[in-house]
Prior knowledge:
By secondary structure, the chain is an alpha+beta fold. The protein has helices at 16-38, 45-48, 50-55, 225-228; strands spanning 69-71, 83-86, 101-104, 113-115, 120-123, 132-136, 147-152, 174-176, 181-184, 200-208, 211-212, 221-222, 248-250.
Amino acid sequence: MSFKPIPLKKTRRIPVLPIVVVIFVIGIVGGYLIYRYVFSPDSGSRWGQYPLFLQNPDRFQEAMLKPGQRCGDAPFAFPTSGVIFGLWDQSYRPGHRHSGIDIFGGTEPGVTPVYAAYPGYLTRRGDWISTIIIRIPDDPLQPNQQIWTYYTHMASQQGESYIVEDFPPGTEEVYVEAGRLLGYQGNYSGDPVNPTGMHLHFSVVRDEGGVYLNELDINNTYDPSPYFNLPVNQKTNRGEFPVCDGVLTYEDW
């Protein structure tokens, strides 16, 4: 007697690689969406209106701060004209924490003046195209402690400096009063193909042994909020434009 072999059923193999790829993509997209919702500058109403600001800055007059404006007993007067879109400790990309405030003037580059917010000693390194830093020997909020105020993006997309001629590259320790004209807002990024939006970046930098620390690291800067009496900390102001809710006075600049 002969037996006819019974064919075994083939087990259907589930393709593992495509599933892994799909899970990976879902994880990346999900993580990005969570980041955008929780951390990104678009998470509040402020940055959502930036395209409208570019189209018509005049619509934002209530949020437009003026040079020389002082909120209550703030030690610093406001250094330029513009709307604050970028806040301290804000994130523009994963892993990034913004170390200052970004003030957008709403004009063409080289038009909106920038002034010293507080008196001190100005330095412009030889390789600084768009940047100056001012040493303040006695911090008005922390007596007997030195700080620095940092101003940048004062140049064109192509690298034409908008810093006034009084402060050429290599300037060191030149005393300036509050209200001294420093330059004009620009959009210089160091890469002509990818300019920043036209604005002034301002930060308050820590001192160590008489030397300013690296401003790019937020841990080397102070929250500017108490220096201006304005809500410019992203953790406490998620979506509103920073404006003064106290008594306003103006310096005669």
